[in-house]
Task: inverse folding
């Protein structure tokens, strides 16, 4: 919710809004300050509760409830089983999967949500894609990229290659993906 903002200045704002005839009244001014402080306390507690429920800040059971809501149950094994950050990436990927129409921009968004870089989608005749990327996410060690992409793009088949930190390429140019030094990537 982009339109919500935390207000941490209830007391000074309330005192500044007092009518002129009450600016010098000590008792009334103190009463307004006490009431505004109570509202500030309520806002502080509600804001903490609100922030804890948001996906980027959620942990434990709250994160599992968010995952269940979008259809991404916490895995039983793998990094996301115990690591909230890895599970959060899976939830973001499930959200991207749920709103995907299988278009190329949707695939870029989905792979970006999974935390991969150097994404290269190459169309292959007649109706498939070759997907190349460099992994930099904890979640990718589970080998679930192919399953996530296939669920997001039902009719398209994939040939997926994950490039390692030292790709097989020309010496001195790791972006070349040609010959000489480095190691071959893993097929997903």
Result:
């Amino acid at each position: 919710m982009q339109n919500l903002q935390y207000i941490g200045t209830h007391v000074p704002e309330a005192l500044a809004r007092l009518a002129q005839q009450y600016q010098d009244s000590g008792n009334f001014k103190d009463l307004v300050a006490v009431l505004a402080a109570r509202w500030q306390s309520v806002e502080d507690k509600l804001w903490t509760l609100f922030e804890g429920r948001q996906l980027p800040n959620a942990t434990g059971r709250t994160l599992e409830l968010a995952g269940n809501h979008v259809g991404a149950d916490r895995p039983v094994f793998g990094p996301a089983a115990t690591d909230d950050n890895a599970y959060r990436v899976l939830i973001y990927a499930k959200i991207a999967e749920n709103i995907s129409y299988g278009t190329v921009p949707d695939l870029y968004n989905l792979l970006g949500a999974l935390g991969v870089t150097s994404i290269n989608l190459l169309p292959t005749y007649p109706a498939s894609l070759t997907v190349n990327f460099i992994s930099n996410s904890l979640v990718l060690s589970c080998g679930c990229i192919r399953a996530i992409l296939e669920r997001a793009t039902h009719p398209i088949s994939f040939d997926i290659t994950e490039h390692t930190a030292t790709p097989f390429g020309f010496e001195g140019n790791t972006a070349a993906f040609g010959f000489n030094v480095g190691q071959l990537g893993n097929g997903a």
